[in-house]
Amino acid sequence: MLGRTGLRVNAVGFGGIPIQRVSEEEAVRVIRRCYELGINYFDTARGYTTSEERIGKALQGVRNEVILATKSHARTKKELLENLEMSLANLRTDHIDVYQLHNVSSEEAWEKITSPGGAIEGLIEARDAGRAKHIGVTSHNPELLTRIVEEEIFETAMIPFNYLATEPEERLLPLCKKNGVGTVIMKPFGGGAFSDANTALKYVLANEAVDIVIPGMMSEAEVEENVRVGGGDLALTDLELKVIEGDRVRLGNQFCRSCDYCKPCPQGIPISFVLRAEVGMLRRMGWTEGVVKQTLEAEPKVATCLKCGVCESRCPYKLPIRELLPQKMSSLMKRLDEKSIP
User: Fold this and answer.
1) Could you report the per-residue pLDDT of 222-239, keeping only the tens digit for each?
2) Whole-prediction pTM value?
3) How far apart are CA 28 and CA 45, in angstroms?
């Protein structure tokens, strides 16, 4: 059961980011293969370019047998309701099963959403009208999300959780379990940075406070492998435990969790984007127009770094941010020139 929603889900769901990078024909095949193998929870977002449309096309004949979840990055009621109408059209449905506020990761975003005329008003209106059956929130900030969950507004909460980003299991996941808030886990593979995807997926699914994990998939082979792992023995072997420990050592002072505690930067540098884009965003989304724009905007800002160290003093993982920023930016620009993906 997905928290108190009453929705029964397969523990492995479908993350809808990577299907932007393949042809529509291939995307439809992947989604249909998910359905054939019992995956019934399909997550996407208004901001994932063609993802909603492709999911809508692939599942139009089995709409009543699946759970459609999408998200709006809107911060005002007006924009959220406009987003909802577009999502309903794209997904070829008259209701969204789980409608979520997208990436509420800062106090400023939460204040805007909850202010008069904010997105929360639109979300509740959509729920009361039956256009959104259940409402949720997604975030990259486990501390903030814990406080939001305590307000008992939402029925689901989506958060990154994996064997390097373990913070949610301390307070957030147990709190969700206690309050009946469905837990939806994104980024189980660390954005593609981990050595073995199967080990990473088992680690997340083995946590009893996790309701569903939504790895991004863009091939039928990936779907079949994830379903196999999800339906198998989740006990980690000695070899898999060594893989986890090896990744923790290898990535320990390099792996940005996107918690954004390092911000704000006095020079406006988008620190987590620069540190995570190559191993995370590019592998999931490819060189979309948005990623290109963010990269080009980040480069001149990185060049203005004052080396003040304020970001490093705030980072709970003690990452050498001043050293990593120029390295990551240089590598990212090289990939942009080549239009290559790790």
Assistant:
1) 999 999 999 999 999 999
2) 0.86
3) 17
Q: What is d(CA 234, CA 112) in angstroms, rounded to the nearest whole number?
A: 41
Residue 251: inside a domain: no
The b-or-e profile of 263-286 (16+ CB within 10 A means b, else e) is: bebeeebbbbbbbbbbbbbbbbbb
How far apart (Å, rounded) are the C-alpha atoms in residues 18 and 60? 20
Please state, in angstroms and as integers, the Cα–Cα distance from residue 8 to each residue in 43, 63, 143, 261, 335, following that order: 15, 15, 28, 35, 42
What are the start-end ranges of the E strands in 123-169? 132-138, 156-160
* Distance of alpha carbon 224 from alpha carbon 33, whole angstroms: 8
Report how far Cα 323 is from the mean position of its chain's Cα atoms.
Answer: 27
Residue ending a domain, choose from 214, 234, 254: 234
Tell me the two tokens of residue 99. 């409608």
Beta-strand ranges (E) seen in 203-306 are 212-213
Tokens (6 digits) for 234: 């989740």
Number of domains in the chain: 2
pLDDT in tens, 200-230: 999 999 999 999 999 999 999 999 999 999 9
Give Cα separations from 10 to 7, 224, 231 (angstroms).
10, 14, 10
Domain boundary among 234, 260, 295: 234
For residue 305, give its domain range: 271-338
* CA distances to 64, 91, 161, 336 from 60, in Å: 9, 8, 31, 36
Asked if residue 95 lies in contact with residue 133, where contact means CB atoms within 8 angstroms, the answer is yes
